Amino acid sequence: MASRKDYAPQSRRQRKAPAKSAPKPPKAPQPAPKKVPWKLAITTFLVLAGLVFLLNQLLKVDSTPAQPAQVERSAPAPKPEPKAKPEPKPSQPKPVTATPKTEKTVVAQPKVVERSTKAAPTPPPAPPKPKEEKFTFYELLPESEVTPAQVDAYKSTPRTEKLSKTYLLQAGSFRSAADAEKMRAQLLLSGLPNVKTSRSDGKNGVWYRVRLGPFESRSALNKAQDKLARLNISAMKIQLD
């Protein structure tokens, strides 16, 4: 009996003990919110703005009414005036003349049969003969020979040879004696021989001339002319009687 009593409270305890709930499974972590990239947002905004702008432009183009093309109408050409038809002339009756009937006699003429005779083919013309070239060059050579004139050999005159006539060289002529003396001194300093000044009275007034010479040999005359040319003086050659 005692064992039964002990069993009964134990079973009651077991009934009174609350049943433990099963452990709940762990919650899955929530995914982080996706971030929209700012570059993609800007590009989409620009694309939308461009589409809106294009639509506005197309609407403006469609709204403008097309102007009718101005066509120049040419004036119609004047119609030609109808010409007046000539009035028909009354036809006069032709006189009727009785012509006697004559019997026609038909004469049979012999038929002439023409036979076509074919002409014989003419032979082609012979080619022209080439013209013979006449070389008259060799015949003209002896006719065109030129005999040169005989010229004596040039004989150079020696420098020391005396001239057939005596010459003076006039370096300049002045109105004042001072200018003439100045030129005379310049020529003497340059080494020119026999430099003299002379006075001449004429229709044109008084002139003072500067002269060199006389020169009896060709070499002395040429040397004096060369020195005067170096001094930029163009001398005048005067022949003495």
From TrEMBL:
Residues 1-36, 64-132 are annotated as: Disordered. It comes from the Bacteria. GO terms for biological process: cytokinetic process. GO terms for cellular component: cell division site; cell septum. GO terms for molecular function: peptidoglycan binding. Residues 161-241 form the SPOR domain. Residues 23-34 have a biased composition (Pro residues). PANTHER family: CELL DIVISION PROTEIN DEDD, CELL DIVISION PROTEIN DEDD-RELATED. This is SPOR domain-containing protein. It comes from Neptunomonas marina.
